[in-house]
Amino acid sequence: MKIGILLGDDIGLEVVPECVKVMKAAASRSGLNIDWRPLPVGKRGHEEHGDTLPAVTEKALHDLNGWVCGPIGHATYPRNDPTWVMPPIRKKYELFAAIRPSLSHSNLKSIHKNVDIVFVRELTEGMLYSETVVGGAPEFRPNDDITIAMRVITRKGSNRVAREAFEIARTRARKKVTAAHKEPVYRLACGMFAEECRKVAREFPDVAFEESMIDTISMKLVMVPQQYDVVVTTNQFGDILTDIGAGLVGGLGLAPGLCVGERQAMAQATHGSAPDIAGRNVANPYAMIISGQMLLQWLGRKHGEPKAIAAADRIRTAVDRVIAEAKCLTSDLGGNAGTTQMGDAIAAAVLAA
Ligand code: ATP
Question: Using CA positions, which residue lies closest to atom 7 of ligand 1?
Answer without folding.
Answer: 272
